[in-house]
Amino acid sequence: MKLLEEVLGMIKPSEEERRLINEVIREVVDIAKAEIEKVESEVTLHLVGSIAKDTYLSGDHDIDLFLAFPLDYSLEELRKRGLELAKAIGNHFENYEVTYAEHPYVRAIYKGFDVDIVPCYNVKSWKEVRTAVDRSILHTKWVIEHLNGRNDEVRLLKRFLKGINAYGSEVYVRGFSGYLTELLIIKYGSFLKLMENIEFLGKIKIIDLEGWLKKEPEIAYKTIEREGEKPLVVIDPVDPRRNVASALSWEKFGVFYFKAMELKENLKLEFFFPSKKKIGDYKVLLREKGTNLIVILFPKPELVDDVLIPQLERSAKGLEKSLKKEGFEVFDLNWGYKDKAFIMLEVDRINRPRTKLKLGPEFLTNRALDFYGKNQKVWIRGKRLYSEKVVEEGVVEVIENLFAKDQISLGKNIRESVKNADILINFVPHELEEEAYLFLSKEKWNVKA
């Protein structure tokens, strides 16, 4: 189709870009091989990821180098020697830093390209996999063998997912990983065929490209049983124990589903390259909606995103649950960080009526008649008078009391930070004004827009 050809023209690397990338890769590989020969001749070098599979988008040039160690190395040896070797390679580049996932690896920059140098085991099958990154070599090999020239179809799917903000398996996205997009194209043959089968995909839920349900039924069915509450179960073609779509959230799958249904009806460039959202005034929006905004704001803890984001989510949901128990209606939640970490809650009101007990004097004292006359509801218990009054209690006071009593479920690493946070009502600092507007207007997650 003409429009898809137009999109491909915008996202497919040009010949000049390819030549540049291939030249940089040759240089990076030569540097790595020279260092390997110096210290660890048994290590095998592998280029993995979207560049190796030729499914990368123009302008997206991350280079993934994996240093595959023999299986007779202990995990401790792999980590120690792998990091030493990765650093030695990184020393040849403009700069590098040590980053931590399951085990440490090096992230470097060379001629403007991001280069990840990752130690792993040199595995030949899923039965040998010891660390999460070991599969990457198997993934690259399997996709290259099965993609059969449909690389551009993967590019279209990736750009579509980027356009609807559903691309990436990171905790702050929870969308479709690059590997998952490749498997979906291999399964359905093309981008448009996937779009045509979107309803079917939503109903079958299970994709088993390698036939693990027949070859390893016990293991594969355990994977399905464990992952059954997820929107998709895509049994990894190289490992029956793993669901490739495990990071995919219902929200991002839902966005994908509705956008695909729309695209079937009316294919537009907007799906791939959406126009920038117009940002209005969040205070005007609050007045128009008649709702209120609570913002919990605190210094960003020194935690990696994979730890921080889930704990912010847990804390936001803990606040929602506790406030609902206290009689506040919570419409929606948002969390993340800019300069500071934040949790946002949109609620129906910021004050609630609360009945409090008033303790009066004994009824035979001088003050008894005065108390009796001033209060509408009066009763006697023993010799003492009692009454009640309705007071306005603010949501800030409620939250502070809940914090003080440890009655809110919070992320363990940020619990004290949240409890000591600033609580803002219907106001955000300047750097969060856009975030607040997108949250309150639903533009941030608006499926229909």
TrEMBL record:
It comes from the Archaea. The keyword Metal-binding applies. ATP binds at residues 50, 53, 139, 158, 167. Keywords: ATP-binding, Magnesium, Metal-binding, Nucleotide-binding, Nucleotidyltransferase, RNA repair, RNA-binding, Transferase, tRNA processing. It catalyses: a tRNA precursor + 2 CTP + ATP = a tRNA with a 3' CCA end + 3 diphosphate; a tRNA with a 3' CCA end + 2 CTP + ATP = a tRNA with a 3' CCACCA end + 3 diphosphate. GO terms for biological process: RNA repair; tRNA 3'-terminal CCA addition. Its cofactor is Mg(2+). Residues 289-421 form the CCA-adding enzyme C-terminal domain. Belongs to the tRNA nucleotidyltransferase/poly(A) polymerase family. Archaeal CCA-adding enzyme subfamily. A single active site specifically recognizes both ATP and CTP and is responsible for their addition. HAMAP family: CCA_arch. Homodimer. This is CCA-adding enzyme. It comes from Thermococcus sibiricus (strain DSM 12597 / MM 739). The gene is cca.
